[in-house]
Amino acid sequence: MKRPAFARSGVGVVVAAGWGMSFGMPALLLYTMGVFFDPMAHDYGLTHAVFGAGLLASTIALAVSVPVVGMIVDRFGVRRPVMVGAALLALGLSLLGALATSAVTYVGAMALVGLIGAGASPVGYTRAVTASFDRATGTAMGVTLTLVGVGSALLPQIASAAILSFGWRWGFVCLGVLALLTIPMSGKLLRMPHRAREAEAVSVAASHIRLTALAAESKFWILLLGFTMVAASLFGFMVHLAPMARAAGATPGEAAAYASLLGLSGLLSRFAIGALCDFVQPRLVMVGCAVAAAAAMLLVAGGNNLIALAAVGLGFVVGAEVDLMSILVSRYYPGALYGRVYSLLYGPTIIGTGLSSLWIGAIADHHGYATALRVGAVLGALGGLLFTLLPRGSEAQRAPRTSSQQA
Fold first, then answer.
1. Taking each helix axis from N to C terminus, what angle separates 79-99 and 48-76, rounded to the nearest 10 degrees?
2. How far apart (Å, rounded) are the C-alpha atoms in residues 222 and 17?
3. Computed over its alpha carbons, how large is the radius of gyration of the chain?
4. Quick one: DSSP state of residue 217?
5. What phi, psi does 3 have (nearest 5°)?
6. What fold, for 10-401?
7. Are 13 and 189 in contact (CB under 8 A)?
8. pTM reported for the whole predicted model
9. Each residue's pLDDT tens digit, 387-403
10. In the chain, where the domains are located
11. Is residue 76 within a helix (H) or strand (E), and if so which, with residue range?
């Protein structure tokens, strides 16, 4: 059966990818865990540090499994891996609600979610988008992530309502249902164009040779260190935003509103950032976003009444990093290398996110959130400045050389 024009155009892929990432991994955890903290702490004494450790366990497990997903996507396409990943993510979230009865079982269940939910991570979705557009890739990715921003803004409110209505354990089950809702649209619309599949079939046999050249590419290490450092410095504040607001005297509803503001900030920034990358060097866009977010964190550290500024700054840099990782990888490492290179960058970045949630929680327990904000701001700015070292212009189009090219 011939697919409709909507599906054959890149529009269908953008819609399916945006929907899938909105209710995929790690969005369902990062944008909602903050509103679960208070009821979980009430039930079994969950501390901020253990709360962060759970996120770290989940991100480490995700980083371990996502390279396998990248290889599968490069070899067999995107549609089936993300559909299976969404189903497993739903299962993992349901088990999290059932198994989290102590600090140990909470951390273990979080690790399980990251391990089995990797197929629903951005690797497959972003690959489908970048393969579907020969021009205006930045704009297409920006539109995709704008749709993700809509979901991000709604998720804290959905989670909060589910907790109030059914309790936090069933709240995780409700999040699992959201993951399942992505499967029909992915099955219908998330297909890479025929030209991309043909090109990758030719180059995939030699891709392992080119991957060995990554270690000699300074741009790969700059990307790896830059993205990881920004995430390890700032991204943990996403899950600590609601607890930080509660510590400042906000009600549960107000804390959830701050978390939604974070998602709304990402929504407003993602399209603009993606479109901007079609005219401005993406590396410079990343520098500006990281430095601006760091400045916002420093301002928030000076007064609890500025938590809304933290939400806006975080949403801006988180949206930029997800967008720019896809764009930079597609420009530096196109074709059959995309999934594996993206996963090699994404894995440490998501571990950095988990690490930041841990160290932020530990500092908050002993010194308060203001100190954590200052530390994160300095390190985040330094991570952003690393992107100034990336090559520019036509150099960004060079893939790693094969052994035959090096001879």
1. 160
2. 27
3. 20
4. -
5. -75, 150
6. Growth Hormone; Chain: A; (1.20.1250)
7. yes
8. 0.69
9. 999 887 544 444 444 33
10. 10-401
11. helix 48-76
